[in-house]
Design goal:
The protein has four helices and three strands. It is flat, with a radius of gyration of 18 Å. The chain has a three-stranded mixed β-sheet. It has one domain. By secondary structure, the chain is α+β, with helices and mostly antiparallel strands. The longest helix has 29 residues. Helix 1 runs antiparallel to helix 2.
């Protein structure tokens, strides 16, 4: 029951972030760009906005490991980096960032720790 409440809270937070991102993006797109040289500045501003939204989404995650991940801008997209304990959390991190970065590409450089606790290792006969 608690897990469902946490998930619902996370989904609500992600939707609020997405809504805020749309408002900010619409404001940025509506700004006049009198010179063509400003278009590169607008692109840089949008990339930085995508990076911030990605990091905010990870920080709002109910998973503590995702809150420790870093986001940066690389090759016109958002790069996620850091370490998590499972491939599941790596996928969750990518899905979380994808929801808020709109049409940006995502480079998932999150590493999965290969060290397992003794109780998690398989028994062999």
């Amino acid at each position: 029951m608690l897990a469902l409440l946490e998930r619902d809270s996370f989904v609500r937070s992600a939707r609020e972030l997405h809504s805020t991102a749309n408002r900010i993006t619409n404001t940025i797109v509506a700004l006049p760009t009198p010179l063509s040289s400003n278009s590169s500045q607008a692109e840089i501003a949008q990339l930085e906005l995508s990076r911030r939204m990605a990091k905010d989404a990870l920080d709002a995650s109910p998973y503590a490991e995702l809150r420790k991940l870093a986001c940066s801008v690389r090759n016109g997209g958002v790069m996620i980096s850091g370490r998590v304990s499972t491939y599941y959390l790596k996928q969750i991190a990518q899905a979380t960032v994808k929801r808020v970065t709109l049409d940006r590409s995502i480079e998932n450089q999150v590493e999965v720790n290969s060290h397992r606790a003794p109780s998690a290792q398989r028994w062999t006969r």
